Amino acid sequence: MKISVVKNIMEANQRIAEENRRRFSEKKLLVINLMSSPGAGKTSLLEKTIQSMKADFRVGVVEGDIQSTYDAERIGQTGVPVVQINTGGACHLDSNMVQEALKGLDLTQMDLLFIENVGNLVCPAEFKLGEDFKAMILSVAEGDDKPLKYPLMFHESRVLLINKIDLLPFCDCDPDLIEERALKINPQLTIFRVSCRTGEGLDRWADWLRNQVKQRK
Question: At 124, phi and psi to the nearest 5?
Answer without folding.
Answer: -55, -30
